[in-house]
């Protein structure tokens, strides 16, 4: 994610500097239920994406583009065009930005949504600062705009936008249109930590969503069964976290994964092999995070054991799966946790 072209400040007064740091999210249960209807559980992780608006003529920091990957420039142009239709007075061109991300791309951890939300926040705050030409944007509006922007591209749901903005652990009730309802938000137990196993195979979310929408239109029985089983798994995940029962959490996440694999074909032979390795080497149950096949698996372990679990997994994966990455993570606060207390429109 490299910045928009240096010196691309809008016509007229240049926006003041702005910065946003946004976590990624793991889905513990409920892929697609945010737009099919049903409960899902998301957890914000401290693998963050940051966007910083640079002053005119300022050069990006060394290594920024390499750290963040490709794509921020194109998204910056599109987000700026979206905002210009809603915030009169913005310049024609977006300001230059520097973007960085800790989360693996196309892995089911919402790194794209984190970038889009960070661009919306950085641009709107910079435009509203002294010398800018915008106005403050409430966080609920920010979430709605980011959802509408991404829906126009991918035709998916709004779990990711609320997850990275509200942070913590969310229980969501999906809607067929618009953002899901935040039923509950809570902090994740401090005594637990997250292990991400990135398979280094990319997801294809857009094709997946088209396929599922076709299933929905046809009244597919397997999709109906998936919704029922996954909704129940989400309730079990939430209850296990609230009662601090780690073994129950792992079992509920595995049930959610089983429904993804057996009823919707979201897993792959490689992912199942990685799950088996994690079980054998570290006793860690893993669940695929995010729809579309490929991507990352996530598991939860005691925080005091995280370093040893990560080390065991790396040793076990190294010979046969050198491209797979094991990433330690912890729960994270969101960009604006107060959104969980704000009433939905």
Automatic annotation (TrEMBL):
Keyword Cytoplasm: yes
Domain GHMP kinase N-terminal: 79-168
Entry keywords, A to Z: ATP-binding, Cytoplasm, Kinase, Lipid biosynthesis, Lipid metabolism, Magnesium, Nucleotide-binding, Transferase
Residue ranges occupied by any GHMP kinase C-terminal domain in the UniProt entry: 240-316
The keyword Repeat is assigned to this record: no
A Pfam family reported for this protein in Swiss-Prot or TrEMBL: GHMP_kinases_N
Pathway where it operates: Isoprenoid biosynthesis; isopentenyl diphosphate biosynthesis via mevalonate pathway; isopentenyl diphosphate from (R)-mevalonate: step 1/3
UniProt cross-references to SUPFAM superfamilies, sorted A to Z: GHMP Kinase, C-terminal domain, Ribosomal protein S5 domain 2-like
Family annotation (PANTHER family): MEVALONATE KINASE
This protein's name: Galactokinase
